[in-house]
Amino acid sequence: MTRESAVSRATRHFDEGRFIEDLARRVAIRTESQVPESRPHLDTYLRDEMTGAFEAMGFRVEILPNPVESAGPILLAERIEDESLPTMLCYGHGDVIRGLEGQWRDGLSPWVLKQEGERWYGRGSADNKAQHSINMAALAMVIAERGRLGFNARFMLETGEEMGSPGLREFCDRHRDRLRADVLIASDGPRLSAHRPTLYLGSRGVMNIDFAIDLREGAHHSGNWGGLLANPGIVLAHALASIVTREGKVLVPGLLPDGIPDSIREVLVDCAPQPEPGEPTIDEGWGEPGLTTAEKLYAWNTFEVLAFRTGNPENPVNAIPGRATATCQVRFVAGCDPTTFVPILRSHLDASGFPMVRVSPARSSFMQATRMDPKDPWVQWAAESMERTTGERPAILPNIGGSLPNDCFAHVLGLPTLWVPHSYAGCSQHAPDEHVLAPVLREGLQLMTGLFWDLGEKDAGAAIRP
């Protein structure tokens, strides 16, 4: 009954195919939260697949309604061994993005887990079914080896993350006592690279913003009116160019952080993004001048144009359109207040001669930014555990470049948040041909088994808890 034997048990669990069997069954359940017709599958995933898996580990399970009536349910599983022990909260989401059937490569289906070399293809394989399945399996490995966890565990699975986690913040606030814990340990998103275990401590926030300009009703023949009528596409293009340069540098100071703390710069020194074969090549010279690639991605704000439309792009005609629209996005780090972004842009556009351009939030809600101090004792404990398992110091990121509902745990529940991802940036999540890498899954199961074993060691949690 040792740490090494628990990790070996986890390795056998993967090598003998039992983990893949579980994942294949879960991928086959069409939990598309963005498709109303798939709502029954969300219930099936929690009731028929997850409930039994947790109960087999001695968890008490309850499926609760979402505070947002139209959103999917949330599962709470709980195993309390001793109230005096530390308590871990784990999180995952059972819903997936649209399957996009018919757009996958020949021979692949979003609902059939299929192996090609080191890749396992299927919708939700990377985001997030493999990731929470690894954490569940690791808990089972520790229980099987030790006979107990050695700590208390609460596990929450939501079914609306791909819709922006509607109701999750209210759910955490409403069930604050039931979700009480000392730390969140969860998995989502990509590693820094496929070959390097990663620990991240939060996420950048995201806010989508709509721009629109309406100059007149309908379109008018360019042969009769060209040179006389203002073109809204041209005006809007110049308005956006006043916000961000052709090299991606943001020109509006109010959209940017005040700076990068020294502790963040220090931890990012050895965390340069390294694209894998088949992934895009980083464009040198793009973004904020003077920053490293790691600082641009993990410690700075960006302004992106996601969509731009004027006229009829599918069937262009020789006419000056009357309207142009764009949907843009600000990714932002902790310390920035996204509620100020639209007013700041409004003032900037007015001062720059674009009062005719309307600006408004694209959604009623946005994901907040979160970030822990890399020097926090929980971070050092987790990094040491991961290094003990693999012999390699993990990459430590203050936050990932993407967005997660981590504010529900960091802000609403007030928890330290540790994320150990089991995917990589080239996994094609949200796109056709989503996949995971077998070596990353195998190592992830080893890492989490070691991490949970260490959390259950006598006095381990007490030494970390404030």
Structural description of this entry:
With 466 residues, this protein is α/β, with parallel strands linked by helices. The protein folds into two domains: 3-203 and 369-464, Zn peptidases (Aminopeptidase, 3-Layer(aba) Sandwich), CATH 3.40.630.10; 205-257 and 301-361, Alpha-Beta Plaits. The protein has 14 helices and 17 strands. It has helices at 3-15, 18-27, 39-55, 125-146, 168-174, 222-225, 232-241, 262-267, 293-298, 341-351, 377-390, 407-412, 438-455, 460-464, and strands at 60-64, 74-79, 87-93, 114-116, 119-121, 152-158, 183-186, 198-200, 205-214, 220-221, 302-310, 319-320, 323-332, 358-361, 395-397, 417-419, 435-437. The radius of gyration is 24 Å and the shape is globular. The model has no long low-confidence stretch (mean pLDDT 96).
Looking at CATH, which topology of the largest domain would you report? Aminopeptidase
Proportion of residues in extended strands? 15-25%
Helix percent reads 25-40%
Read across the widest sheet, the strand sequence of neighbours is 1-2-6-3-7-16
Low-confidence stretches: none
Mean pLDDT metric: 96
- The total number of structural domains is 2
Overall outline: globular
- For the terminal residues, how far apart are their CA atoms? 29 Å
Structure classification: alpha/beta
CATH architecture of the largest domain: 3-Layer(aba) Sandwich
Number of helices: 14
**CATH superfamily assignment of the largest domain?**
Zn peptidases
| CATH C-level of the largest domain | Alpha Beta
User: Biggest β-sheet: count, sense, barrel?
Assistant: 6 strands, mixed
Radius of gyration from the alpha-carbon trace, in angstroms: 24 Å
- How many DSSP-defined strands? 17
